[in-house]
Description:
Blueprint: H1 19-27, H2 55-72, E1 77-79, E2 89-94, H3 100-106, E3 111-123, E4 128-134, E5 141-148, E6 150-156, E7 162-168, H4 169-182, E8 191-198, H5 199-205, H6 212-218
Antiparallel strand pairs: 1-2, 2-3, 3-6, 4-5, 5-8, 6-7
Amino acid sequence: MASESDRTAPDTRSPSRPLADRVEELLATGGPLPIVAAGDPVLRRGAEPYDGQLGPALLARFVEALRLTMHAAPGVGLAAPQVGVGLRIAVIEDPAPVPEEVGAVRGRVPQPFRVLVNPSYEAVGSDRAAFFEGCLSVPGWQAVVARPARVRLTALDEHGRAVDEEFTGWPARIVQHETDHLDGMLYLDRAELRSLSSNEAMALRWSQPTPERAAAALGFALPD
């Protein structure tokens, strides 16, 4: 989940500069892009809908840079605002390298690489699931977030083709997390803050498949 601490992003976020110019400048740095941390206003503004601002060739280069950055972090999703670009674009991919017991309880199954352009989601049904969740823009910490267990995602892919699909389990969590970024929301806005734990505390105390033990010890309620 950690990014290189000594990488400094170029100042690409001035709203007066064309988005294409800002993306070109970012890509000129080469390698993984610097990830923006919580406290930067770009993470708190609703991202601009994508409507061809980058053009097909530049969009393809930007998507590949997001993919490279997500892999290097490492993470299972990355939204454009997390690299300082306020466009409604996100990428997700999850090889699900977890023990079978964890994968079964959390509904975590491998997800192929996907590009989500202008995504939105809605809950399907009333079931909710609560698990620890982290974010590349909030490095070093995790907290329990209760989210809808099933969602319907509508979006476009990188070629402009319509996406209309239901996700359950951990893939539904990833979709919600990344789409929230495009609405200026961090997972902490939805989290049970009494559950907030450092990565070290998570590894030592709360690495069980479900957060029941953490809830009992830290004094917070889980959804029914």
